Amino acid sequence: MKTLFIDSTNNKKTIVRLIIEGKIYSKEEIVEPRSPQKVLPLINLLLQEQKIAIKDITHITVAEGPGSFTGVRVGVAIGNACAFALGIPINGGKFSKGKSAVEPKY
Q1: SS3 breakdown of the chain: % helix, strand, coil, rounded to 5?
Q2: Is the pTM value of this prediction over 0.85?
Q3: Alpha helices of the chain — where are they, by DSSP H?
Q4: Is residue 17 part of a domain?
Q5: What is the pLDDT, as a whole number, of residue 99?
Q6: 27 CB-near residues (< 8 Å, 6+ apart)
Q7: Exposed, middle or buried, 71 (CB in 10 Å: 0-12/13-18/19+)?
Q8: Could you read off the pLDDT of 48-74 as tens digits, one per residue?
Q9: What CATH number does the domain containing 13 carry?
Q10: How many domains does the chain fold into?
Q11: Which domain holds residue 76?
């Protein structure tokens, strides 16, 4: 199992983790005020370091909030988009008829 974890709820720090068979690989970046979130570059860097492709991810977990309004929306949107595109579960649920994506909690 390969799980991608995204936490961009803190307006001072972005965290991305990759959990492969129970082993945790993590990247964190300090976020400057009024600067764009660094979620996608961190995901890309982590995947490159572990020599896996995004299509190899089997599950996604995203911090839904509460937290920074923009940060929460960015993390949830990226998590939902990746889960939908890959057809994999996010926060334990899978996209299907009648089921919605993960929603931010402000």
Answers
A1: 30, 30, 40
A2: yes
A3: 39-49, 69-86
A4: yes
A5: 63
A6: 15, 16, 17, 42, 45, 46
A7: buried
A8: 999 999 999 999 999 999 998 989 999
A9: 3.30.420.40
A10: 1
A11: 2-86
